[in-house]
Amino acid sequence: MNRIVVNGEDLKLYPKESINLNLQVNDISDISTRNSTYSNTLQIPRCSTNDKIFEFLGVLGNTSRSPYKKIKCKYLVNNVPLISNGYLQITKTTDTDYSIVLFDGIIDLAEKIKDASISDLGVATFYSHQRNETTILNSLDNTSGYVYAFQNNIENVITPHWLHSRHTVNKMYPVFFVKTILIAILEEAGYKYKGELFDNEDLSGEVFSMSNGIEDSFMDFRKVFPKIKQSSFLKDVLNRYGQIIKLEGDTINFISMDSLLVGEYGYSDLTDKFIEINEEKYNLNYGQSNKFTFNYSDKFNTNGDGYLYVQNDTLPPTKITYTSIFDYNTSTSKYENENAPVPENVPVLYNIPLIEVKTETIDENEVEVIKSKSFNSSLFKIIKTGNNFEIGDGILSGYRVINSQETILSKEFTNWEYYLNKNYTRIQHILNNFKTINVSLKLNEIDIYNLDFFNLYFLQQTGKYYFLNKVQTNNQISKVELTEVNGALINNQVIQPPTTLSINITNVVVTQPTPDYSIAGINVQYNFGGYTPESARIIFTQLDGENGEPTGYSKTLSLDVNNNSHNELISTNNCGWYQIQIIENDNNIESNIVQTYIQCDVSTVETPSIDVMLLDIEDIDANGAAIGFKYRFNHFTPTTATASIRAYNFNTGAFGETVNINLTNLQSDTIHKVDNITRPNTNVFYIYHQVTIVTDTLTSTSIVYLL
Fold first, then answer.
1. What is the average per-residue pLDDT within 132-150?
2. Could you tell me if 631 and 609 are in contact, meaning their C-beta atoms sit under 8 angstroms apart?
3. DSSP classification of residue 163
4. Lowest mean pLDDT among 396-400, 635-639, 691-695
5. Burial of 37 by CB count in 10 Å (0-12 exposed, 13-18 middle, 19+ buried)?
6. What Cα–Cα distance (Å) separates residue 406 from each residue in 129, 189, 342, 348, 676?
7. Same CATH topology for 502-598 and 609-705?
8. Which CATH architecture has domain 502-598?
9. Comparing C-alpha atoms, which of 33, 35, 10 is closest to residue 21?
10. d(CA 229, CA 238)
11. How far is CA 297 from CA 95, 305, 352, in A?
12. Among the listed ranges 254-263, 286-295, 395-404, 417-426, which one has the minimum average pLDDT value?
């Protein structure tokens, strides 16, 4: 049963309305894209319940804002939440229907921040400050927020190199930490965050320069920040560090694609869900040479580019795959007498011209006037030099020497070649051997709920591991796109993913209770795939019906991991439907779930037995050359049955020759006839015979008088 819940109320749905989901996190065939889950457009009825939830949208004179809002919702199938933190949008209203589309929460993140710029963030206000000697010096050891790393902010200035470490307060500008902005985007959108990225040294030391100058002493980051959208900023970080994001409730988990592609986030097995392969594809949204580039103020300097090469002659020769939002600025300060050698201790100061200094005559006095300018923002790293430096206002107090290391900017480890070599090695190997398959899988709502786009998936039918690219649900049959990942590289060595660890319940046999014995016996057969756990438990959970809800009664028992079966006794006092599952204790690896039934009413249960009877007189061989008998299986149906017949001397107890036959009529509670059996050799014509019938579950021996 489908349910869409809005503010705790269920929308009314058409009984046979098909809700198909398109699930996707990231398309590996185009790593510059980021995607997520959405539904087909579906129609729901105009009725009093839905009208009320949508604030009477479509009713004459309504003032509903519902079609202009992202309406929080949950989507459940048989009470399994397939979208637990999503929203819906109303696309159309008619006299009879509403048309709606469902989305999950990751899209909601993109929607929240898509029109906002980084200058709209609270940190832009929080870190704004008066620019003076104290705030500058206090910032030099910062690892978050801002830092006044020394740079040349004056356009077209040429400085004597012996003044390289003299810095004037009103001509200095800070840089801002990328990580601080990233965290602020997430937190101000209402999310927590986690992932190894936040411990990454490259990200922790990465800063960006300001884009706009100011003409007073108040450093207002809302004015000096570059005009960058929060969504573009987030995407730039994801692309440089090869990351995808996973929504886990109110937490966004940042995950490395390179780590995912060798199974560091887990494995799952889809073998039992496989139906067929529909097609195999090799096309990519790449070129043979894929350029990752920056913006360039200096069009003749493009040494920040990097290339991802794909060994596929069918692709276009070149493609620009991604252009960063940042400039790649390599312009550095000029010193007087460029032909003279500059001492080794003179640091490189990058030119970020945010002001222009002019001399104007005011009241017959020459006055230095600062005019603000704009310049493209660029990425840098923070480093320390061994030099002391001078700082001051240059007018009243002059300059004073600070016995501390200078904090300066560096372009090291900020080009695309570095980012690609460090974060895209395994992705490149996958692209060089790119293959996707579209398969049909039998996935129920629980299977879809448990799908994890951050696991690798194994198919025994192909013997390969795959990255889960896309899923299109349609009732019980889903179309799934999988990208083959066998042979991902670690340190240039091919690594095959380890064997999938699994627990499989293979069979359950129930011996039902009888009127004489009111206890059922359950035999559970199982195996462990790829390993033997240290310990495990088996859980019998009573349900209120087939595929029902737990009643509250259950049994949890220790499992013998060195055996392949478990026997359990359950009284008729606790009869009914049970689900059975095995769970490993250390890693909580779970088996498949099976259901079985224990009969409650045993008053009519009969004990299985076998009857052997004489033939009717009309069936007897008149010549006496053949004999026969009749038989019946009472209250059971055997799988196989054989009969052996031999003559029996009632007086002496001696037996004659044995005749063996297979019984082919096995239907229960029905009399079957066997005749035309060649009489065993004997000197006595009328004689007793011993008839033994053996089945797969029961054996019966009778002495009968056969004619």
1. 95
2. no
3. G
4. 396-400
5. buried
6. 21, 36, 18, 11, 112
7. yes
8. Sandwich (2.60)
9. 35
10. 14
11. 57, 14, 11
12. 395-404
